[in-house]
Design brief:
The protein folds into 3 domains: 2-167, GIY-YIG endonuclease; 183-229, no CATH class; 231-293, no CATH class. With 293 residues, it is of the alpha+beta class. The chain has helices spanning 43-51, 53-59, 62-65, 102-115, 121-130, 149-161, 197-204, 208-216, 245-250, 257-265, and strands spanning 2-5, 13-15, 22-29, 32-41, 82-88, 94-99, 135-142, 183-189, 192-194, 222-229, 235-237, 240-242, 272-274. Helix content is 30%, strand content 25%. The strands form 4 sheets. A 5-stranded mixed beta sheet has the order 2-1-7-5-6, sandwiched between helices. It has a 3-stranded antiparallel beta sheet with strand order 9-8-10, with helices on one face. Strands 12-11-13 form a 3-stranded antiparallel beta sheet. It starts with a strand and ends in a 19-residue tail after the last strand.
Length: 293
């Protein structure tokens, strides 16, 4: 059994077989609703909208069709913008999200999690461990008041911050951001070795993002063989020595990597340079420019 709680005005309802779905997508155009193929919409949606619960009840007895009291819920009411929550019922951790179309977004979450390619690695790990039967999807807020993305983002952040950091899958304002090193992933996909994700993407005609997600989420036949540290160029920043550009950025020498790169190449910043003799830029004898990046 799979449970989705819509909101306080609608009782919880069950989808007894999530694998029994039809490929439809919900599109909104000038307040008119169209159904088109390619994206999953729960099969109950089709039962509730294509023929109508009233037609079913008039033509045949409800019990003969195996329908229950929840078949009259109109899923189209939940294609509004708003805020949703995914809860792991085993450990109580939640994922808070916002969407322009709640129904569409929750379906995408389900598909990505089932395929092992969710962007949220920790959520994906728990989904793999506990399976879909141990998760709940719930719409928290919906309506035209959340039509603007910034309004949704503000509310999403407010709800996330109402939890303790360890209670959410999302990035939390009180959780320290861990900066991961830059690695090239040597991998094996369906028995074939690739020296990088880019190489695998080019040969397999599969997007780099999908390959990376499958590797990081330990999808079968997608195996990380080795992590090769790369992109770490020792530099001098403000006459201080750093092992990499990002080390200098984290130390506050530049606002971001792009500003650091500009300063390394700028003739007006002789206190910034590469330590590698092959990349060292001779800035001596150049006229100092007034522009400071």
């Amino acid at each position: 059994m799979y449970l989705i709680q819509i909101d306080d005005s609608v009782p919880a309802f069950f989808l007894s077989n999530l694998d029994c779905m039809y490929p439809y997508k919900l599109n909104l155009r000038r307040n008119n609703i169209f159904l088109s193929k390619n994206i999953v919409i729960f099969y109950n949606l089709i039962l509730a909208t294509s023929t109508g619960a009233n037609d079913f009840s008039q033509s045949q007895h409800r019990s003969q069709l195996g329908l229950d009291e929840y078949n009259e819920i109109n899923f189209l009411n939940y294609s509004d913008p708003g805020i949703y929550r995914i809860t792991c019922n085993i450990n109580g951790k939640v994922y808070i999200g916002e969407a322009q179309n709640l129904l569409d977004r929750m379906n995408k979450h389900f598909k990505d999690l089932q395929n092992g390619i969710s962007d949220c690695r920790e959520l994906q790990s728990d989904w793999n461990l506990h399976t879909k039967d141990c998760f709940t999807m719930q719409v928290l807020l919906k309506g035209q008041e959340f039509i603007t993305k910034q309004k949704r983002l503000d509310k999403e952040t407010e709800i996330i911050n109402s939890y303790e950091p360890e209670q959410v899958y999302n990035q939390h304002s009180r959780r320290e951001i861990i900066h991961e090193d830059n690695y090239r992933l040597v991998c094996e996909i369906h028995g074939q070795r690739f020296e990088s994700i880019k190489d695998a993407s080019r040969q397999l005609k599969e997007s780099e993002n999908n390959i990376r997600r499958r590797l990081l989420n330990s999808v079968p036949n997608y195996v990380i063989i080795e992590k090769v540290r790369q992109g770490y160029e020792p530099i001098i920043a403000n006459n201080k020595h750093y092992d990499s550009i990002m080390d200098a950025v984290r130390a506050g020498e530049a606002r971001d990597r792009f500003q650091a790169m500009r300063r390394l190449k700028s003739q007006s910043r002789p206190d910034w340079n590469y330590k590698n003799p092959e990349k060292y830029i001779n800035k001596r004898g150049t006229k100092q420019q007034k522009k400071i990046f």
